[in-house]
What we know:
Elements: H1 5-22, H2 31-36, H3 43-46, H4 57-62, E1 86-88, E2 91-95, E3 98-102, H5 132-139, E4 146-150, H6 159-170, E5 177-182, H7 184-187, H8 194-201, E6 206-212, H9 221-232, E7 237-242, H10 251-263, E8 267-272, H11 287-298, E9 308-311, E10 320-321
Parallel strand pairs: 3-4, 4-5, 5-6, 6-7, 7-8, 8-9
Antiparallel strand pairs: 1-2, 2-3, 9-10
The chain binds pyridoxal-5'-phosphate and iron/sulfur cluster (SF4).
Amino acid sequence: MSYNPPIGFVKKDIELADNIKKLPTLNSFSIEAEKQFPLLLTHEFAKRISWYNPEDPLLLQILPTKHELQKKPGFSTDPLSESIYNQAPGLIKKYHGRVILQLTGACPIHCRYCFRRHIKSNNIPSTLDDWSQAVEIIRNDISIKEVIYSGGDPLMLNSKKLLEISTMLSTIPHVKRLRIHTRTPVASPKRVNLELITGLKNLPLVVTMVIHMNHPAEMDDSVKTTLTAIVEAGIPLYNQSVLLKGVNDNVDTLTALSETLIEARVTPYYLHLLDPVSGAAHFFVDAKKGRELIDKIRLLLPGYAVPLLVMDTPGELSKTPL
Ligand SMILES: *Cc1c(COP(=O)(O)O)cnc(C)c1O
Ligand code: SF4
């Protein structure tokens, strides 16, 4: 079965957004914040929210609120200075041995704390031909062993195009690995169908996937079924989370998140400190609190279930472990 995400998502989500705005308990909702970064979510993610609980940890991640309008020094629109690493449309070369390819600006949901929430994605190629400049740069740089698909969310691209680009990259001898950074298995698990998984499995590359889940309530049977299918295709799964005030900044939630992931055969990878993006300051948890939390969950979990606490520092060639 083929899948065409954008149309299905957009139509349904507009209806959903209208419903959300009518909910009486959501009095922190702000139209002004919604204008800056529109409300967007899937029905599948919406199903996991307790809509009458204003502190629901999933709701907090997607609801545009008046807190976003507070200006805070040090919080900016491009906190990682990503624009300076843009070598060709869609290509970010920042780290040794690996490049980031932004396949699309679209996402299945809009996470309010996203560090790319202000970045306009009109510099992202749309046809296979438009990708040639980025592909040529990769072809001519033998230090690049890994290509990381990013976005937006790369799985918003239709499978045919995604597999075409991947096949093109797999003809470059020094490119050995493909990594996909995506929130789609969580936000829209059915999109990651057998056609896509089989296509990825058959690529002559080592394929890994890094999903993005911040709270155990983001897992349900449908997500788990998708994750199992990915692992069974031989694609290792990792997770990255962002440490978010009011969402997951406590020992119980972080422990349960790791347990939930491990039971779905996903390895917790990074726990990121929030990037200082304007509009998200109310989610910020500092490094000291982050360390305290990690020290406590280390006493409760096997070592492989404890994510690495990191922050992103502009200009650094790797994440900074804390
Ligand atoms: C840090 C980062 C990467 C690379 O991650 P590693 O796992 O450290 O190789 C890729 N994409 C984005 C957006 C990042 O911030
Ligand atoms: S890029 Fe990822 S974190 Fe940002 S809005 Fe899209 S899905 Fe959410």
